[in-house]
Structures are given as C-alpha cells and as structure tokens.
Design brief:
Layout lengths: L11 E3 L17 H6 L4 E3 L42 E2 L9 E5 L10 E3 L2 E5 L4 E6 L4 E7 L12 E6 L2 E6 L3 E6 L4 E7 L9 E3 L2 E5 L5 E5 L5 E5 L13 E4 L4 E5 L4 E6 L5 E6 L18 E2 L3 E5 L4 E5 L5 E5 L8 E3 L2 E5 L4 E6 L4 E7 H9 L8 E7 L2 E6 L3 E6 L4 E6 L9 E3 L2 E5 L4 E4 L1
Parallel strand pairs: 3-29
Antiparallel strand pairs: 1-2, 4-35, 5-6, 6-7, 7-8, 9-10, 10-11, 11-12, 13-14, 14-15, 15-16, 17-18, 18-19, 19-20, 21-22, 22-23, 23-24, 25-26, 26-27, 27-28, 29-30, 30-31, 31-32, 33-34, 34-35
Length: about 450
C-alpha cells in the first residue's frame, strides 16, 4: 500500500486580454472596470521541454482542403461521431441577425445541439429545453427528475437523433426522450454516475461511468449489451472519459487512466489497447489530462497533458508523437491536422508526411497585427470555416487566420459567448451569458 502520492496540478494564473484600446490584452495598469471585462483570461504553466519552436511555412505551400459544406444540424456535443469539425460554409458579417428571449434562468451546459432548426440545451437543474428558431419560441421544456433529486446539480450528456434525445447523467440515469411527443420512451437507473460523452452508433448507445467501464446499450430499450471494465483510478480528476467512432465498425474509448481502447462494434470485443501515460506515472493514483479524441476514419489524434499522438485506428500503432499538448480539440481535414497548444502555438501538421508544416505563436501574431506589445490570450473554441481557422477567445474576440497561419482579421462578437459556437446554414449560433440565443 502506498503511503503517499504526489498530485501534479497545472497552476493557473490570471492573465490576458487585448490592449487598452482594442480590449484584447490584459494590463496590470488598466482600470477595475476593464479588469472585470477580462477576468476570464488565464495563463497555464508549461514545462520547459514542451515544443516551442517557430516554424515558417514554405513558400508556395498549397493546402488541399475539403470544400466548405453548408451544415444543417449539430446533433452531437462534438459535432459528429468522429468528434471532428468540418470545413464549414460561413457568411461572415459579425452582425446579430437574431436574439431570442432568455431560455433558462439557471446555469446551462456549454454545449448546444440543433436538429431541424430546433435548439436543444440543458441546465444544471436538469431541464432540457427545446427552442424553435423558426417559430421563435420554446416548444418543449422537460425535467426527468423527481423532488428527491431537486438539490442535486445535474450534469447531463446529450445526443439527438430523429427527435429523440438520449441522456446520461451524473446520478446514474440513462433515458430516451422524444421531444416531439413530449414522452419518455424508456429510462434506466444504473446507480453509478456516467462520466463521458454519449454516442449513438447504429442501434447502440455508447457511454462510460465514473468507474471507467465502457458500456454498450441497446438503443431501443436501454438494456446493457456489454460492459467492458477498464482501469479505475482511485481519484477522480477533471478529465472526462471520451468516446468516438469511425463510420464502419470501430469504437474508440479514452479513459481517465490514460488508456485508449479500440472495440469492434459488431462483436463488442477489444481490438487493441494502449496506455498513453508515461511509465513513471503508471499507477492507479495517476491523474490523466487531455482533450477529446478526434479521428478521420483511419487516423486518430490523442493529446495528453504533455504529448500529442497520431495513431492508426486499425492497428493501434503510434505513427507519430509530438511533444506539444493541445489546449482545445484539434481539427483534422484531409491529410492535415490543426492544433492550438498550451503554450499558445498555432500548429499545422501534415499527417501523411508526418511533419510540422508551420508553427506560429498566436500572441506574437496578434501583437504584430495590432502593432502592440505582446501579452497572452485565453482560448475558448476552434473552427475551420471557409478554408480559414477561426479561434474564439474567452472574452468573445475572434481571431481569423488564413489556412497558411497568417492572421487576417480580429473582431469582437456582438454578445459575450457562453456556449461552444455551432455553425448552421452559414450562420454562427451560440448562447450569450444570459442564456439568450444569438444568431450571427
């Protein structure tokens, strides 16, 4: 039995914004009012061995991206089964086309879903709210929980398919709710809190609990088809177990111990598994951290607190390992992957040739663009739109980079962003801090 253990925690300091005039930098001499505006900026300490090089893109380098698509729905927290964004069509104008009334008086989860022009959100009281964008009204508001759960903060994980919202929660419930019929189709109480995103794959529901069990359910009735126990950590950390799939026969699962599993979706047997925690930290007290896994059918990207791995989905072979850590979920498009790292680098990688195409310090890019002294910014979300990289900051500024890493535009959203932005029919949709829907 171990007598003690050491927890390694990334120290977070207050930091950044914009300069006094633009509102981008944080400055210790600015007024209290301005400090309040930018209190959400932070700095993350980075170990000295992390990749920190500036690599300039070669002259005349040409990216071959997939063409922008006109996206119609956003039915998964992480957009699709791969957890990977597309190259979205976006009519950039940065003007509010529409603002709804307040949709909830309680704190809401940062993820929103959209199906058939219906916005789906949930708050920590357990309310699921369906708002019709076309009709400009709430068409359904549902709360599954009885009085005995009233005082418990409910953390719901949602995915929607054909008017049915599948929900797992931190109490141990799994249920299916048809919002058109306003009816619970089935509900199960598994007693153990769920701790992962939730996926639909063919006729199955995929989820994981706090014990790091990967559980496959029958979509029709919620019955367990198979439970796959994996390593359980003694201490719960901030990392949330994450699941993705490809479009054929593979389930990918990353648990809080840092182990990555590939499961055959038909036989429900394990294909392979690897642990991505360094060997000197390999114990059940270990705290793994990282961002959501992303794949493009053949290649899988996993970013831990120290390294980023490119893995062959079929074999589990690590094809490449980079000593940088992604701060937000990366993006894969064709043979390219794009990252924002913990030390504020924007990096493009050629997955086919296994090399870094460019690496630029985002703070330097902002300083050069505004002709100001460099400070630090804090990142919120990352999207590929119209062959450009759009970076959302926590203070609601947006950085628009050309695909070659050149910063071409900085602007501020009309309202402070509260939810992860989704792009539907060429428009940007998000919740502002008062839970009003903003359509840009």
């Amino acid at each position: 039995m171990k007598l003690f253990y050491v927890l390694i925690i990334l120290t977070i300091f207050c930091g950044c914004s914009f300069d006094n005039k633009s509102g981008i930098w944080d400055n210790s001499n600015i007024s209290d009012k301005e400090n309040k505006l930018f209190k959400d900026f932070k700095e993350v300490s980075i170990s000295s061995d992390q990749f920190n090089e500036i690599i300039t893109i070669k002259d005349n380098y040409k990216f071959k991206l997939s063409p922008p698509i006109k996206n119609l729905e956003w039915k998964d927290f992480f957009y699709n089964q791969y957890n990977n964004s597309k190259n979205f069509n976006y009519n950039t104008n940065n003007k509010s086309i529409f603002k709804s009334k307040k949709l909830s008086k309680f704190n809401t989860k940062k993820y929103i879903l959209i199906e058939n022009n219906n916005l789906i959100l949930n708050d920590f009281k357990g309310n699921i709210i369906i708002y019709s964008i076309n009709e400009n009204k709430i068409i359904s508001k549902f709360n599954f929980y009885k009085k005995r759960y009233k005082k418990i903060k409910k953390n719901l994980n949602l995915v929607v398919e054909k008017n049915i919202i599948y929900v797992s929660d931190n109490i141990g419930f799994l249920y299916a709710y048809n919002y058109k019929l306003d009816k619970v189709l089935w509900a199960k109480n598994f007693k153990k809190p769920f701790r992962s995103n939730i996926k639909i794959f063919s006729n199955k529901i995929l989820a994981s609990n706090e014990k790091n069990d990967l559980i496959i359910f029958n979509k029709k009735d919620g019955n367990i088809l198979k439970k796959i126990p994996t390593e359980e950590t003694i201490i719960n950390n901030k990392f949330i177990n994450n699941i993705s799939t490809n479009n054929t026969d593979t389930i990918i699962f990353l648990n809080s111990f840092g182990s990555l599993y590939s499961v055959d979706s038909n036989s429900l047997n394990i294909n392979w598994f690897i642990n991505l925690t360094s060997s000197n930290e390999l114990n059940l007290n270990n705290l793994f951290s990282g961002v959501e896994i992303v794949n493009d059918k053949k290649k899988l990207i996993v970013s831990s607190s120290t390294n980023t791995y490119v893995i062959d989905i079929k074999t589990g072979l690590i094809e490449n390992k980079f000593n940088f850590s992604s701060l937000v979920r990366p993006i894969i498009n064709n043979q390219y992957a794009f990252f924002i790292t913990k030390n504020d680098l924007l990096i493009a990688v050629d997955l086919k040739n296994k090399n870094i195409i460019y690496s630029y310090n985002i703070n330097n890019k902002i300083a050069d663009f505004l002709n100001l002294k460099k400070k630090n910014v804090s990142f919120f979300a990352f999207r590929l739109v119209e062959n450009s990289l759009m970076i959302f900051l926590t203070n609601s500024y947006v950085l628009n980079f050309k695909i070659n890493g050149e910063l071409k535009e900085i602007y501020k959203l009309p309202k402070k962003i509260h939810s992860e932005p989704v792009i539907i029919q060429g428009s940007l949709i998000y919740l502002e801090k008062k839970n009003k829907l903003i359509l840009n």
